[in-house]
Amino acid sequence: MSKKVSIVDIANTLNISKTTVSFILNGRAQEKRISEELVERVQKLVKEVGYKPNSLAKSLRTGKSNIIGLMVEDISNPFFASIARLIENRAYENGYRIIYCSTDNDTERTRELISMFRDRHVDGYIISPPEGIEEDVKELLGSGQPVVMFDRYLQDIDTDHVIVDNAFSMYNATQHLVQQGYRNIALITFSSAQSQMMDRVTGYKNALKDAKLKPLLKEIDFNRNEALITEPLMAFLKKNTGIDAILFGTDHIGTCGLKVIRQLGLKVPEDVAVVSFDDYDVFKLHSPPVSAIAQPIEALADHVISLMLKKLDANATPTTQKITLSTNLNIRESSLQHSKAVAE
Fold first, then answer.
1. In what residue span(s) does the HTH lacI-type domain sit (predicted)?
2. Rounded to an integer, what distance in angstroms lies between the CA atom of residue 115 and that of residue 132?
3. Which of 13, 60, 130, 183 has the most neighbouring CB atoms within 10 Å?
4. In contact, 137 and 148? CB cutoff 8 Å
5. pTM of the predicted structure, to 2 decimals
6. How far apart are CA 318 and CA 166, in angstroms?
7. Rounded to an integer, what distance in angstroms lies between the CA atom of residue 220 and that of residue 188?
8. Rounded to an integer, what distance in angstroms lies between the CA atom of residue 306 and that of residue 86?
């Protein structure tokens, strides 16, 4: 394996100082009154030997890496993947690169990832945080690191965040089912103390309270093994045969739920109506198409990266912004009343 070329090697070859080489490579030749002839010689040699600057060393010298760390729950999830792509595009246009990773809502894993990003000297952190990383985030903020949260936030942390109105979104979806004549409406979601999940449960319960109906909540532990999601889901539906409508708290549990409903031989919406939080292609292509709460992906991504870029701008006035966006309930066949006699 050939030795990696360094600034010292280039300087020795041209019989000049490594400081002069550094000035040229960092675009400061004119400022330091270095001749064009020498600049051309350095650039020519750099190209010939394939020299690549050490980004970590450069970040230590300049105090900037031009890298933003993006930490999401699951980068393969359509919601997070779409937002990550939009953030990456905006960041690139402004001279930044994105390193992203999945936390799997695992506290210890998230702490390790934050530590890795700190070692890489990233300039800022965009996080959809799991529970239990409050102290880690406080340390980042205490050391002057920009942090922007999205999708959810940590109650005791005062930093920028961008979320949707989860409580109203679920209230509105539940109210839609009530207006369609459904009376035994269940909410099936992942068990979580995260802000967005708790707000969705609150919205559901408030809507049923206003309609003088009883809630039927089923919380399931998240697991990457789909069988560990579908098994308790099937047991719940077999036990509660009177359910005539289901709200799913996330797109992931919604797709699992649709599989279980089909396995049980139930028809949508004739036997059970369905609405899911988060809208994506699978729901549009399902037969019948599934009603879903669509989050404003582009607006979320735009606000998140705009907040981060503002925090990274040394000339900007330091502020903390907490932004809440509206969602849209896309009503499709899965939640419409189909010639069903509604008992009043």
1. 5-62
2. 15
3. 130
4. no
5. 0.81
6. 28
7. 8
8. 12
